[in-house]
Amino acid sequence: MEIVHHHSNEWLQGVRPGNRALYLTLWLVMAGGLCSGFAQTYPIYVTPALAPPYSLRLSDYSMTGSQQLTVSIMVSDASISNLPVRLRIRIEGSAGVAVETAPNLTTMPLFLNGGQTTLLFGTDLADYFNVDNLIFTGYSKEQYLRTRQLPEGFYRFTVDVLHYGTNRVVSNHGMATAWIALGKPPVLKIPDHGAEVGQILGMPLTFSWLPSNVGVPAAGVHYTFELWELRIPGIDPNVIAASMPAFHTVQQPHTTLVVQPAELFLEQGLRYAWRVTAADPMGQVPFEQDGHSEVRTFTYQAHCDTATGFVVEQQSTRGTLRWEAGVNHTSFNVELRNPATGYSRQSQTFDSQVAYSDLDFGTTYRLRVQAVCNGDPQHVSAYSAWYTLSVPELKIDSTSCPDCHCGDSPPKASVTNLTLRTDLHPGDTISNAAGSTRFIIKTAEAQSDGVYKGQFWYWAEIWKVKILCAYWDLSVNTDNVVVNMDYESVSDSTLLIDVGAAKNYLDSLADMVTGKTAGANVEDTSAIAAPAADIYTGAEDTNTKDPVVAVAEIPDSTRAETPPQVIDEPAPDTAEEEEEEKVEETQEDTSNDTGPGVGDIPPAQTGSGTQPAEEEEQQEEDEDGDFEVQLFDGNKRSGRDSILLITAEAAMPDIRVKIAGNSHSTKKVELRLEISYQRDGEDNNGAAIKNLRNDVSVYPSSNDWQSVKINEEWDIDFGSDIRGGTALLLCRDDTKIDTVRFYIRGKNPTLNQIQNYLTQQSYHPQYWFIIKMTRQESSLQQFKAGTNYKKKGLTGTDNASGEPLYGKPRGFGLKQLDNWGNPIKHATSQHLWSWKANIDGGVEVIREKEEYVEEAKKDHKKVIDNWNKWNAKDPVSDNLTIIKGENAGSTALTITEGNETFAVNPSGNQRNIYDARWIKLFNGGPPYYQVNKKDAKSKPCREINRTNSLNKNYVRDVCSRSN
Questions:
Q1: What pLDDT, on the 0 to 100 scale, is given for residue 269?
Q2: CA distances to 252, 293, 404 from 227, in Å
Q3: pLDDT of residue 448
Q4: Helix (H) or strand (E) holding 146
């Protein structure tokens, strides 16, 4: 071998470089013949080496800096100089796959010199791993391009050094082997995709997944748990995971993770996305999908189950509905309904039962319950089924109540239950032993154990009249039956009268009642200056369908008349006898008649005889201090249930309240105004959102009352608040409480007012699209136009005149303010009722989106600059590729949307392409304009996504509007 080696040197000496390859080849052939049967040695020795992570992607071996395959070429013959060579690489897999360098590969030659070692890796091998330069066997090129990886298995990499000009092998047969398999991403277990979690508020959340399957024994796999907030509806969580950093990340070797919601400030009702990524810290295991699991979502809000175990109990006029509460039930909404009259009452309870003490005899009620979970009024269950509560008919014993007015002793009847109640409280209904008369407790003060005093309403069944009486020494058994009681009537100005039961009696029996009771010493009633049928509250009597009225005493009217009584007189035998009776009654009552209108009850004379009746009447008024609540809008008197308007300048109506009464009175009345607005809504899937708005504002404040003297005014100061909805004016003094209900609605601004405000606040032309966008969002309406005012809460997507314009799921007003911000925000009451505040809120959103756009600008510029720096001959162009929407698949230098044209490098009247991204961000959905790379080696491209998730081009819609 030494001789052969020596001769080889002589053969190469003096040979022209162009012929050295031929002589070297001949030498190698002779050497092969001479050395037959002996270990071969080569002047060129090639050694391939594989280093983890082993990859099934061919491109990984030729990436910049990659050392997954290194090829070492050592030239031991010092006489070799500037020898041109290339490589032949063959990859063979145990699955019958073979990939080999094409023999006609065109690549730059490598020049070798004696005594040197050449090391090749990464981009040095780019031509040899280019798919177009490879021949596939047992696995087609198309299959590889579709999957971008070879099948898993045992692989042998062989490398030969070939003479560049003749393709003859001039080296040994270098070889390296490895078992190559991808690690499998984790498989997520719990919670399920789309689950609601957090059954109990603050309860820890558990996430778990199956361990990754890897092909390298004893590989130490670590897992990265990532959590994202999904604040913008409609965006694919996979897009969020691919483009946004996670707000919470944990790395651990375990496959179970417990998260404390309080530590992460998880928000009720908010959706979140999560995934787990597997990785080998030693870098020995490559993973499918870069180790990423699927992306799952969950909502941090427990499923709110309906209450169960309902039980109905009824006794006399008392009824109770009980149920079993769920673990996260914190309160309940209860609805009581009388189907016969349409009457409905809604209430809230924090107990798992509701009790009613003033139900009507002979009435069947229906009840249902809705649970509120975790203290969130918007997180409610479905209503339960209806449950029936029936109160039997009252069996009236005509002998048990001969007169039916205060002052008489309770009817005598046998009472066998002598176990007394010790828990009597306002609202309880008690009855006499016969069950024919009811007393509704107004106040209850214990005199001793089981003995009470206070006031109750005496319910006269035949007239359906409630008369206020004082009682004492009252004992009631556990059946709510009176055992003992003394009582008398109280002078009070308020009666509740059922028109159907009383109007005819009042009209036809007025003279008779007055005559028969002229000497009675009772103060129960007030003069009625208007026909009872003209004053009503809207409820109806079950049998007659007549309205129920509330009659209040008229100022300056007499109080000294007697109540009507039921007189057990025999019916006249003839018309003549009837007429004689009427004449007799009229003669008896002549001195008391003050001339009321037909059908009115004439007052009885109660003067002492030494003092004029007028003076006595005035004295009683002074002592009583009665008053009338008067409501004004500016100088204009407004009645109950009237509509007052917020002005087009976004100012509250000038609401003033006057307490009219006796000019000599020194008493004070306390006032408070509550303004509430409630409506339901609808989400993007058409599902109902209960109590979407349930706003309440109180003036002067929730803990204060405004004190006003008789004949003084309260000019209500709202400060900067603009509020609308249902207004309840509460008035109270020592003797009574009155409520005046009215409604506040809004008036839309004009275009000129809107433009002036935008200019005044420097919003326009700073945000050139703001008027266009406002037209698109609301047609420049803060409120639904027209005068079709509603007084009931709205549901679904309904709108009513004067109320804030609504668009699902939570949009209100000019800018249709929906969810925005981090942490998430909703429209406030001020945003709903002040169009100026609504515009301010819209500008807040616009500015927030502007920050996102500026961040995107920086990121995009960095990507483009990095590419252009290393690829100066192939820079990123200004062409915009349309990936979704109109003209998808095409490219353009500018994009025209409506009346506006956008460009990457705008000129003239063109807008910047980032303005289009900015506009679309206000509406939501994927970015309008984006700079993307398919992978690390791909050239960046400018992409346009013109439509949102509903296939609407919001940018074009906005830009089509006028200013």
A1: 81
A2: 15, 13, 73
A3: 82
A4: helix 141-147
- Mean pLDDT value across residues 489-509: 50
H or E element at residue 20? helix 17-34
Residues 6+ apart with CB under 8 A from 16: none
Report the C-alpha gap between 731 and 734 in whole angstroms: 11
CA atoms within 13 A on the CB side of 197: 27
Quote the CA–CA distance of 813 and 749 in Å, as a whole number. 12
Task: Say how far apart CA 726 and CA 791 lie, in whole Å.
Answer: 8
Task: Please give the distance of CA 781 from its chain centroid, rounded to a whole number.
Answer: 23
Contact 586, 578 (CB under 8 A): no
**SS3 state at 229:** strand
Burial letters for 270-287: b for 16+ Cβ neighbours within 10 Å, e otherwise?
bbbbbbbbbbbeeebbbb
Work out the mean pLDDT of the chain and round it to a whole number. Answer: 79
Kindly state the tokens that stand for 85. Answer: 């060579």
Distances from the Cα of 883 to the Cαs of 879, 891, 943, in angstroms? 13, 9, 6
Q: How far apart are CA 731 and CA 669, in angstroms?
A: 7
Average pLDDT over residues 461-483: 80
b/e per residue, 723-738, with b = 16+ CB within 10 A? bbbbbebbbebeeeeb
Q: How would residue 463 be classed by pLDDT, with cut points 50, 70 and 90? A: low
Find tokens 């326009």 and name the residue.
Answer: 764
Q: Are 405 and 460 in contact (CB under 8 A)?
A: yes
953: confidence class by pLDDT, cuts 50, 70, 90: very high
Return d(Cα 553, Cα 494) in angstroms, integer.
7
**C-alpha–C-alpha distance, residues 558 and 592, integer Å:** 12
Tell me the residue length of the chain.
963
Q: Do residues 166 and 195 make contact, with C-beta atoms less than 8 angstroms apart?
A: no
User: Is 80 exceeded by the pLDDT of residue 559?
Assistant: no
Got the DSSP string for 48-101? EEE-SSP-S-GGGGGSTT--SEEEEEEE--TT--SEEEEEEEEEEETTS-EEEE
* Spatial separation of the C-alpha atoms in residues 445 and 443, rounded to whole Å: 7
Q: Rounded distance, CA 509 to CA 109, Å?
A: 126
Q: Checking DSSP bridges between strand 195-197 and strand 296-300, what pairing results, if any?
A: parallel
760 token code pair:
């005044």
The three-state secondary structure class of 898 is: coil
Enter the tokens of residue 181.
């398999």
pLDDT digits (tens, 9 = 90+) for 232-279: 888 889 988 988 899 999 999 999 999 998 888 888 788 999 999 998
Of residues 45, 41, 20, 40, the one with CA closest to residue 119: 45
Do 368 and 312 form a contact (C-beta atoms < 8 A)?
Answer: no
User: In this predicted structure, which of 155-169, 347-361, 501-515 has the lowest mean pLDDT?
Assistant: 501-515
* The predicted structure's pLDDT at residue 205: 92
Answer whether 897's CB lies under 8 Å from 206's CB. no
Mean pLDDT of 443-453: 88
Structure tokens at 214: 């890897």
pLDDT computed for residue 395 by the predictor: 62
Give the span between the Cα atoms of 383 and 307, in whole angstroms.
9
3-state secondary structure of 154: strand
- Residue 23 has phi, psi (to 5 degrees) of -65, -35
Q: Is 332 a residue whose pLDDT tops 90?
A: yes
Measured over all CA atoms, what is the biggest interatomic distance in the chain, rounded to whole angstroms?
166
In this prediction the pTM is 0.42
Question: Range with the lowest mean pLDDT among 17-26, 64-73, 655-664, 946-955?
Answer: 17-26
Rounded to the nearest angstrom, the gap between the alpha carbon of residue 786 and the centroid of all alpha carbons in its chain is 29
3-state secondary structure of 614: helix
Cα gap 231→228, rounded to integer Å: 9
H helix runs in 421-509, sequence order: 499-508
User: Which is nearest to 340 in space by CA: 312, 364, 314, 369?
Assistant: 364
- Category of 917 on φ-ψ map: left (φ > 0), alpha (ψ -120 to 50) or beta: alpha
